[in-house]
């Protein structure tokens, strides 16, 4: 299969390209930098340097690659600026979908997130509505996710993957990631301002190892149209996972607290499992240590 990966050097993009090439797919990956282009080529894929906000360049790149499927893995997480990530979700997705239409691509897979569901008790499933009435700043995140998912749905065959909090190499939750820096008292990274969730309280989160997220994306090449939560088996409150993460990365233990927002409920992976996906890292408990 010919696969176009937009965001091939991101946290999921890197293992995704490796897995796609290993599976025998012909991959074209995009990057914004010369270093990223070199990395994609070193993985055995074709590479295109691309500015996702240049609509004509995006269209030309997708048409030239002539893919069977476009995979949208574009984010701006490394800069720690939510507004830029929202811009990619709204404008970048628009350009990518328009390019896919122009190239006659009938299938798309896109990255979304699993913590945008409406408030409730227990882990949210895919039938739970998005929290579209959320106040700011959460409202901006939910709104941009909604825009992304609605735009991707213009492609007849599409799969939206709502990933949990990513951990592992290249993510915020890693020994050298932003979360570890914050727990050690280093707040110099711009993204540190958005790590308010590092509190051992009652707020429930769902995680997924970045390699498992990539495996789900490869599997989604064969999945039916729809939205699927990609999370591990154990949604957990901060009072459990935050101390475990701190211990795993050698950071001081933060002071415990209580309480949670009603939307901090985690998500269930029952649908993904019914489609045949099984996370290698079934729980963050063992995943953090690994």
What does this structure look like?
The protein is globular. The protein contains 10 helices and 11 strands. It has a single domain, classed as NAD(P)-binding Rossmann-like Domain (Rossmann fold, 3-Layer(aba) Sandwich), CATH 3.40.50.720. Helix 1 crosses helix 7 (210-219), helix 3 (55-65) crosses helix 4 (82-103) and helix 4 (82-103) packs parallel to helix 5 (138-152). The chain starts with a strand and ends with a helix. It has helices at residues 13-22, 34-42, 55-65, 82-103, 138-152, 178-183, 210-219, 238-249, 270-274, 284-289; strands at residues 2-6, 26-31, 46-49, 69-72, 107-113, 157-163, 165-167, 204-205, 207-209, 226-230, 236-237. A 7-stranded parallel beta sheet has the order 3-2-1-4-5-6-10, with helices on both faces. Strands 7-9 form a two-stranded parallel ribbon. A two-stranded antiparallel sheet has the order 8-11. The chain is 37% helix and 17% strand. By secondary structure, it is α/β, with parallel strands linked by helices.
Q: Strand-and-helix sequence, N→C?
A: EHEHEHEHEHEEHEEHEEHHH
Principal-axes shape call: globular
| Overall pLDDT metric | 95
C-alpha Rg (nearest Å): 18 Å
Strand order of the largest sheet: 3-2-1-4-5-6-10
Secondary structure category: alpha/beta
Distance between the termini: 32 Å
Question: What fraction, in percent, of the residue positions are helical?
Answer: 25-40%
Domain count: the total is 1
